[in-house]
Amino acid sequence: MLCRIIRHPSLQIAGLASRNRQGGSMKSRRHAASALLVACMILAAAFAQSRLSTAQQKPEDKPAQPAEKKDLLTVVPAAQPTPPDSGTQKTPSKTSTKIQLPGGDVDDKNPVITNTDLITFTVTVTDIYGRFVSGLGKNAFSIFEDKEPQDISFFSDEDSPVSVGILFDVSGSMSGDKVRRARDALSHFVQTSHDRDEYFLIGFNSRAQLLMDRTRDGQAVLDKLTFVQTKNNTALYDACYLGVERVQRGAHPKRALLLISDGQDNNSRYTFNELRRVLKESDVVLYAIGILGGSDVGSSLGMEGQGILDELAGVSGGKAFYPRSAAEMDDIFEQIALELRHQYSIGYRPPNFVSNGKWHRIKVRVAAPRGLPKLFVRSKEGYFAIANPK
Known about the structure:
disordered N terminus; alpha/beta; Rossmann fold; 4-stranded antiparallel β-sheet; single chain
């Protein structure tokens, strides 16, 4: 018996609705899965981007730290010398009792102050032909103070710079071509001198005047003398006194004056004896160039002027010259410049130094090496025992 089951239409509708509901739920699930997948992909992309940015920032951060360490390393060494060094802070040039070596550098603004218990002076050595002799050793020299031998404690033969005071006479007695000849010859001195020499220029007629103060420009000194006019009287002693005072403030331990005049003083406040005493007390060497005209040679004024220049130069350890021609004057200025560059600097300490102001005579002897003829020595004659800083 065949049985046929016929479903009720309501059941068919219900089944169809159920299938429709199942199809809708499947679609919603698919949409939800798709949305979830998209969200996961967005999160994954964001995470990957954050990792990438982090990886990119790390290389930039790494070199930043060592850079800070390098800066600290450069600062630390600079801070290390800040503690005071007892070996260097207690020896400034202004309080030192040791003489500055001529070969050493000197601060141009702070002159070296020494103490006179170390007696120092320059020595010029020549042969019988007047040529300068260099290269002698310390043992070739013998120093005597008041006939007593002394031990040399400082010796130098270096070509060291000099503080030079140029004293230029522009009085009426230097009229004519005297000034022009002297200026032209002075250019030879500047050209031959040490390139580190410093110059003080003092012009004088009725009074002494500082025209240039502490310059290394020798050409500027010459230019200053180009248009000078000669007039009035001659304050020669005042000019020398001012010159000694100025060069003792110079930067170099070696000091010299270059006096260009006819030697006739008639208007100074200081006297000849006062100036002579000052030159004997100082460590300044004076070189005098007597500019004598045709009428001056053999005259009483000319002879008196020569005697004055000879005495002032002699007491300081220098020398006076009297050229008779322009060519001879050029040679003399060159000779003075060469002498300053070939001098010996010698110092000693008297064993029983007493600051009593007394005069002590110095005698220098030099032993000529084998094979050389007799040598001649020129230096200052002595010193006054005054232990004041200078």
